[in-house]
Design brief:
Its cofactor is Mg(2+). The chain has 36 helices and 33 strands. By secondary structure, it is α+β, with helices and mostly antiparallel strands. It folds into four domains: 150 residues, Calcium-transporting ATPase, cytoplasmic transduction domain A (Distorted Sandwich); 313 residues, no CATH class; 209 residues, 3-Layer(aba) Sandwich (Rossmann fold), CATH 3.40.50.1000; 224 residues, 3-Layer(aba) Sandwich (Calcium-transporting ATPase, cytoplasmic domain N). The strands form six sheets. A nine-stranded mixed beta sheet has the order 14-33-32-31-15-27-30-29-28, with helices on both faces. The chain has a nine-stranded antiparallel beta sheet with strand order 17-16-26-25-24-23-22-21-20, with helices on both faces. Strands 3-2-4-13-5-11 form a six-stranded antiparallel beta sheet.
Length: 1074
Amino acid sequence: MKRLVYINDDSRRYSYCDNRISNTKYTLWNFFPKNLWEQFRRFMNQYFLLIACLQLWSRITPVSPVTTWGPLIIIFIVSASKEAWDDYNRYLSDKKANERNVWVVKDGVRRQIKAQDIHVGDIVCLHENDEIPCDLVLIGTSDPQGICYIETSALDGETDLKTRIVPPISANMSVEQLEKVKGIVECPNPDNDIRRFDANMRLFLPSVDNEKCPLTINNTLLQSCYLRYTEWACGVAVYTGNETKSGMSRGTAEPKLTAADAMIDKLTIAIFMLQIVVVLVLGYFGNIWKHTKGLKQWYLMYPAEGPWYGFLVIPLRFELLCSIMIPISIKVTLDLAKGVYAKFIDWDEQMFDWETNTPAHSANTAISEDLGQVEYILSDKTGTLTENRMIFKRCCINNIMYGNDNGDALKDARLLNAVSSNDPDIVKFLMVMALCNTVVPVKSNDDTVSYKAQSQDEEALVNAASNLNMMLISKDSSTAEICFNESKFKYELLDVLEFTSDRKRMSVVVKEGQTGKILLLSKGADEAILPRVYPGQQKQRYLEAVEMYSQLGLRTLCLGWRDLEEDEYKEWSKNFQEASCSLENRESKIAEVCDSLERDLHILGVTAIEDRLQDGVPETIKLLRNAGINVWMLTGDKQNTAIQIGRLCNLITSEPNSQLLSISGKTEQDILRSLERALLITKNTCETKDLAFVLDGWALEILQKHSKESFTRLAMLSKTAICCRMTPLQKAQLVAILKSVGYLTLAIGDGGNDVRMIQEANIGVGISGREGLQAARAADYSIGKFKFLKRLILIHGRYSYNRTAFISQYSFYKSLLICFIQILFAFLSGFSGTSLFNSISLMAYNVFYTSLPVMTIIFDKDISETTVLQYPQILLHSQAGRLLNPTTFCGWFGRSLYHALVIFFITICAYADEKSEMQELSMVALSGCIWLQAFVVMMDSNSFTSPQIILIWGNFVAFYMINLILSAVPSLQLYTIMFRLCGQPSYWITMALTVAVAMGPVMAFRYFRNLYWPSPINILQQIEQSNGSIQPSRNVESALKPARTNLTNLLTGTRGSRGSSYQPLLSDSAESTR
């Protein structure tokens, strides 16, 4: 499908939408129903809505409907208020953009309108530093050469300026002609691809020649970019409003389900099934008691004959009574806690990159606990592990290597002498370095030249050529000027054959200004250039140079050229023009035409560029591997370069502790055989040996087609992988393979080519690097340097997992505690479904009394940060899900049942006599619950801070203050109750006895467990308590060794049992592995 844009034609301007931007989710009229619908799509909210509706039936409800409606309405209001606030801020942002003033041309007259009133086909005029209001096709600029500069950081995060070029068809038009121009732009329907725009433009006579002119992304000005260093520019609006490329790219990412959330969902279902069983059993006994004894009790006033549904009344009463088994506030509590975890990451000064002034940032507040369970890290290389600061180091020209002696070709006397003597091979080599690129030279006021480049490699090559006296001094859309040894040379830029990840090379066709010769200048990867040499050229020396430079960890490019005959070029140019004008499969057609020209090349030489490792990368990778995390490196570089970087950054350890297996071959059969050989070696290798495999993109493509299952098994058995020559899609495919077998993955990268991988992983981390902010914006977390990953995972991730595990299980504990007391009371109330607690107490218990103390855990640290970083193996505890699983939940379930029994029987024994009122009995039992929950939170806390003390004991005091106030209200059932209880010594003795009996066995069990069966955490805590701060010692290591071995054996057994049919982590079978 295509769109026809009629330039400056008011009669057709309303065929498409206007330029009004709307990022809001709601309107004033649909907010309430839409938000209500979204909230009640959740199973838990649907469940409590059903319970709340049943409570409106007075015949069956044992308590006031306010006990459920109150918390449900509060939760709804909190969630709705947050949504409304976020949407209101989006509305204000949209309003500011929509009401911005812009200049347009109407019938040759400039007028100012609001940005929202721009329509497709309008001619929009921009001035320097203006924000571009919609997607435009550039038709004129103030620059005589038809060039303008734009800043795209708001669109793709890249901070370097981009050049945009006026199409040749309108390049020589005057301002008056531009304001009156008519024509048609034929372009695709709106899409979100900011890298591509395949369109054509035709201007009507008599303005210009009526020929079709191809348009590319380089002829566009996209919404959200800024015009820089250009006095004015004008363009035709082709996409407006939410149909711009920026608008089409907006959207809400699919929510990620964490491993902890998946476990909580399963536990919720298990509790719901238990609740159904309890309701049926109690309902059965309730109906039996009613018919055998209840009907005989006159004071119960049962009718002689009830309605037909009478047998359902008691089970439904118990359903309402037991509905609190599932904590209504758990989601709000966890959302609040996770929001605080995210702020801890944002506020961490130790993760602040002072070099670039970049803080760590959490864009996704819902998955912090998954950081503590990461099993695989898949990392990009360039800009992620390395600095992405390219430095020209060595080169090989005409079979002579420069820079081998001192490590810097720019200081090699032989090369400098050759430059001075105008060696023709050196001159051609430097000419390709200076001209075959997309670099833009910028002159300052003092006539010095600096370079703006989209590629760090190109910038390094142009700067190196400049240092060797081959300086690119000016460049526009059609000409380039270089200066060599004080002599200037002009070239006409005829065509640019752009670089793509498939072609892996770029070329330019230039025409010498003095001789009129037409030259093809090419540069690219060795596998893309060397196979295209002319027959008979010796390339062995260059292959050796590529191999040697790769072994040193340097990035290599091959440079070549050839003369073009004028007839040959004209024929090719015609085909290139046809391919460039195609609206369908333009990219593949252009690639085919380019390939026909890039042949019979004369190889000039090889460049070698250094990209240094970031500070702290080797130490970080070593620490993460010691924590039990497997690290893979995915890169587009050559195999030898990637392997060398892997050795430098501790990804591959030295022999004999590691073994590197290569999956490669010249044919498909060779690759498949190497895979089987690697699998055999891996299965027969002892666990203590680090196994790594290396493969390239072509091998992965073969394995994906013919042996995906075997490759998956190898991936599960290998601790390290180096994957080179990877495309962005293949990076994402590797992440998907690991996810498919249940591993929790983290992907980290810094460039736009890493976005697919980052979005595919369970957790995406972007580095705010020199390649821009695309990766950081697409990621769940952004950091300034790779070394901060250790704190993100080991500190924030581990603490978040520990805290989430406690908060979620405690929420079930406090709900089960009061529910079990209600169930026990049923045995004394004839299984009638009567509630022991009044409605106000039940609502306050769920919403206020027990929700605040648990939030103290968000400040809790079981061991210090220093200890975690010294003993990263402790992360295995979190990876194995040791704190949140069916076993630990059974412990909390048993504790709630035991505490309910203690509270109930002590209360009954102390207050179940003729002198005690029902409300007294209820308040004593409720007080016991409040006392116990305070001690449970306190006993399970590992550290104490001021907020923790205030929340735990402040809430404790608030309980008594609130109930004393309620006891002073004559109209309430609690009238005088708390005053009487607080004045009785027996009440305080009952509370003390309840705490002693309930907490005593728990404390004793913990003491003996820590004494005879300590976990690694217990050992580290004991050492911290005895020494004040932990220091590495042989005794500590020996004490930790047995516990660490047990954990390692557990994980090894778990991972070893995973076959190719293993279900993903979030599937129904995942809990068996966690």
